[in-house]
Write a structure and sequence with these properties.
Layout (H helix, E strand, L loop, with lengths): L16 H18 L13 E6 L5 H12 L3 E6 L11 H9 L5 E6 L4 H8 L3 E7 L5 H15 L6 E5 L6 H12 L3 E5 L15 E3 L2 H7 L2 E4 L4 H7 L7 H8 L3 H5 L6 E3 L12 H4 L6 H20 L3
Parallel strand pairs: 1-2, 1-3, 3-4, 5-6, 5-8, 6-7, 8-9
Helix pairs in contact: 1-12, 2-12, 5-6, 5-12
């Protein structure tokens, strides 16, 4: 089977292991392309892709745009802050107006969970979810798993810890689903206030002790403290950033105490000195820049495979 089992990429939910293997195989081939002197292929030369970002983004948006241009697609970008959404236009009307301009595929980030699925049910075009609220961020999970597979060879029975603000993280949810599908053991770690209730129902274990978790894991995926989401809710989930860093921040002293060498990840952007210190983020243990490079290749793979379903 050399085609995806889904028409849209709404989330990791709905994907099967074969889908992920197919994406990873295509990503390997596209990674070779982006490391050549001529970094473009004509794979999507006749397609137009719209990037609809109803929520601020820099890294994900740039990564998608670069992936699209490497595939030779025509790209139009939309920012809600300077659009008719400000004047009261609905999501469906916005997208239908864009599709009337003969757009073939839509990449969308939206602050409301479920918005990409809602849109997929309303319009006749391919939808790629670039992050919806605290729900999912599937391409981030795919690039994280691809980066780990590249580093470790296999994820089967590897111990992977996701550490930090699990409550507000769409990255955590998608990562858990993807890693479990690929056979990894997953643990989430953070203060009790930042661990959602019933998270164990996803097949993960829970810890509130960072040092114990670091001793257990092969990989530590450090998540950003999402202060903007906490502030919008008017809730403080821990006394101070300094106290958080003391209890759950990854620093060189903690790494030096470990008997085993672990892989360090971070989806970015990094709050240096909070969830991770600069000497760790920039160390040989970290594959953070590999994640960034692989993000372009994985997104090229997703766009190419979904476009071939038309």
């Amino acid at each position: 089977m050399n085609k995806l089992s889904v028409r849209h990429l709404i989330g990791i939910r709905g994907l099967c292991e074969n889908d992920i293997e197919l994406i990873f195989q295509a990503a390997k081939e596209f990674k070779e392309v982006i490391n050549r002197p001529i970094k473009k292929v004509p794979s999507l030369r006749d397609l137009t892709i719209a990037n609809l970002f109803f929520e601020n983004s820099t890294r994900t948006r740039l990564s998608f745009e670069l992936a699209q241009k490497r595939l030779s697609a025509d790209v139009v970008s939309f920012s809600a802050g300077s659009s008719s959404v400000k004047k009261g236009e609905t999501l469906v009307d916005t997208v239908n107006n864009i599709l009337a301009m003969k757009v073939d595929l839509v990449v969308m980030r939206h602050p409301h969970p479920g918005a990409p699925q809602f849109l997929a049910n309303k319009v006749d075009t391919i939808i790629v979810n670039a992050g919806d609220g605290t729900h999912e961020h599937p391409t981030q999970a795919l690039l994280d798993a691809f980066s780990l597979q590249e580093k470790l060879g296999t994820l089967v029975n590897k111990n992977i810890a996701i550490i930090g603000d699990i409550r507000h993280s769409r990255v955590a949810i998608s990562n858990i689903l993807c890693l479990k599908l690929l056979g990894a053991n997953v643990r989430v770690c953070g203060p009790k206030t930042l661990i959602p209730k019933h998270i164990q129902s996803m097949g993960v274990t829970v810890s509130h002790n960072l040092d114990e978790t670091l001793a257990w894991c092969d990989v530590a995926n450090m998540l950003r403290i999402q202060q903007e989401r906490q502030e919008s809710q008017g809730v403080s989930y821990f006394p101070s950033l300094r106290e958080y860093a003391s209890s759950f921040g990854l620093n060189k002293a903690r790494l030096d105490k470990l008997d085993n060498e672990i892989v360090i990840m971070h989806p970015g952007p990094i709050n240096r000195g909070v969830e991770i210190t600069s000497d760790v983020a920039d160390s040989q243990h970290a594959i953070i820049l590999d994640q960034v490079e692989n993000g372009v290749a994985v997104r090229m793979a997703v766009l190419y495979l979904l476009a071939s379903m038309q």
